[in-house]
Each structure stands twice: as structure tokens, then as C-alpha cells.
Design a protein that fits this description.
This protein has about 180 residues and is mostly beta strands. The chain is built from no helices and 14 strands. Strands 1, 2, 3, 4, 5, 6, 7, 8, 9 and 12 form a ten-stranded antiparallel sheet that branches. About 35% of the residues are buried.
């Protein structure tokens, strides 16, 4: 995948839904996270909970990955829906340069409030509106609650954007 930057054009509150936290069996570094997105067009780099916030201590084994409908990148260049994650799945962990695969210890699923983020290149994500959520932006961690239109976000864009059962396919799919 290629990592590019794209500007935020809109962030909107979209209400309560079901979120997933990915708890890994290993420690993630401060600049590491996972690739998630609403569609197969591209993926946000959502960072591990390595930072202390007003309401959470650091949890460097966890990534709050967002709404259950999103894709997450796993081994062999495939994706899964967050709703399908289970213990033992090997997920792609990256800092935008180095990649590794780390097994999932559990997926924690709960009801939470969400924001929808749209970028100028058409990539979108639905993430929990929480002070523990950080995304990658041009070499720095961006606190989701502080993100505004016009900021640059780092995203991964694949060569083949269509997916069927998690595998890339050569087909045109219209996702809205």
C-alpha cells in the first residue's frame, strides 16, 4: 500500500453505534496502529492507546478501531469487517513505514458515540468520539477530538479498491 496525506473536508457527529477495540497479545509502539476505513478505497492509520489522557491510562496493547462495519487490514493483503474479528486473528500493525502482524487477544465490543471523517480524496472512517483515539497525520499523532477541516491525515491507499469476502478483486464497486 501507498501512504499519502489528504485533507479533512468534514467531521460530523453521527450518533451512537457499536464500536470495537482490538486488544493485542503484544505491546504496540507509540507510532504504530492499524489500518481501518469505511470502504476499500483506503484506510486511516488509527494509533495504539499509548498516550495518557484525562480519562484513560496508556494501554499500549489496544487500538480503538471504530465502528463494526469498517474494514481492517489483516494478513495476506486481506481485510475483515471489524464485526468479524476474533482472538488469534493476525492483524497488520504499521507506523506507515514498517509493517508487522500481531495476533489479536480479544475484540471488545460496546456502544459508544461516533464521528464520521471525510477526506478530500474520498476516504472515510467512522471512529469513536473519545479522548483515547489518535490518528496519524503527516508524521505526528492527531488527537481525534481536536481534528478540524483542513488538517492533513495520513492514509493508506491500495492498488485494487474492490473487495469480496476480504480479498481484492478486479471489479468496480460503488460504496457510499
Amino acid at each position: 500500500m501507498d501512504y499519502v496525506t489528504s485533507k479533512i473536508i468534514n467531521i460530523s457527529d453521527i450518533g451512537e453505534g457499536t464500536r470495537v477495540e482490538a486488544d493485542f497479545i503484544d505491546i504496540l509502539e507509540e507510532d504504530e496502529g492499524v489500518l481501518v476505513g469505511d470502504t476499500a478505497r483506503g484506510f486511516f492509520l488509527v494509533l495504539a492507546e499509548t498516550r495518557e489522557t484525562e480519562t484513560y491510562p496508556p494501554r499500549p496493547f489496544r487500538v480503538n478501531v471504530g465502528s463494526i462495519h469498517q474494514y481492517i487490514c489483516i494478513e495476506n493483503g486481506e481485510t475483515k469487517y471489524l464485526s468479524e474479528l476474533k482472538a488469534g486473528d493476525k492483524l497488520l500493525v504499521t507506523n506507515g513505514e514498517k509493517e508487522r502482524y500481531v495476533s489479536l487477544g480479544r475484540a471488545k465490543i460496546e456502544k459508544r458515540e461516533f464521528v464520521h471523517i471525510e477526506l478530500e480524496n474520498g476516504i472515510t472512517a467512522t471512529l469513536q468520539k473519545a479522548d483515547s483515539v489518535y490518528i496519524s497525520g503527516k508524521g505526528e499523532a492527531l488527537h481525534l477530538l481536536d481534528c478540524k477541516a483542513g488538517e492533513d491525515v495520513t492514509v493508506a491507499v491500495g492498488e485494487n479498491i474492490a473487495r469480496h469476502k476480504g480479498r481484492a478483486i478486479d471489479e468496480e464497486i460503488n460504496e457510499k
